[in-house]
Structures are given as structure tokens and as C-alpha cells.
Amino acid sequence: MLLGQMARRPLPDDLVHRWSEPLLHDTRIRRDLLTYCRSPFNKPELIHNTEALARFTGDTLILWSPDNRVMPPAHGHRLAHLLPAGRYAEIPGAYVLSMLDKPHTVAREISHFLTSPPPPPPQRAPRGR
Is 98 exposed, middle or buried (0-12, 13-18, 19+ CB in 10 A)? Predict the structure, then answer.
């Protein structure tokens, strides 16, 4: 059910098996997943860790699929704005797993990001005296 919301078309069975087989056969992975699922949701910690991304100054590409049904487009814009050197690009017609739905578009956007100079930093307003 979850994976059905992640891609526009049904995922191939062999891919789903490759993603899920380790969970079925590796007790360490099951232990980690159970620990994660049983841990309490700590909203203040999530907000703190998200806001900490503002300290990352490296070039960043945020690829967002505005047609996806899981994460609202506004979240992608906010994430790109939060990162000082964040660049935002959309993958129309894709859901969350955009690399499966639109692999050529994803490759083109990544190629453009890697071969284009970063935009100049935003101008800061002068401080009053």
C-alpha cells in the first residue's frame, strides 16, 4: 500500500523484493526497523534538526515531484529556501520515486546542477547604525 503512493506506475516485483528481502532475512535490519518504529515522535527534535540544515553551506539540489501524493510541494520549496545554497527543481509527472517515474528528467536536472555554476549568494540588506 505504501509503495503504491510512491510511484506513478506499479513497481516491478523484483525491485520490491530486492528492497524488502533484507528485512526478512537479516535480524539486524529487523531490529533497527523495530527500534525506529517504536521510538516516540519527537517534534521539537525534528524541527531542531531540520533547522540545523541552515548551517550547511554546500551546494544542494532539491528535486521535487509536485504531483506526488505523499509530500506537499510547499515542503520542497521550504527545504530549498532553508539551505543557504539550495537549488530547487521540479520533476513534473512523477511521484516520490521520481528516479523511477522520470529517470531522464532526473538525470538531466542532476547533470545541469553538476555542470552549472552556483547562483550568487543572496544580497543581504545593509545593517542600520
Answer: buried
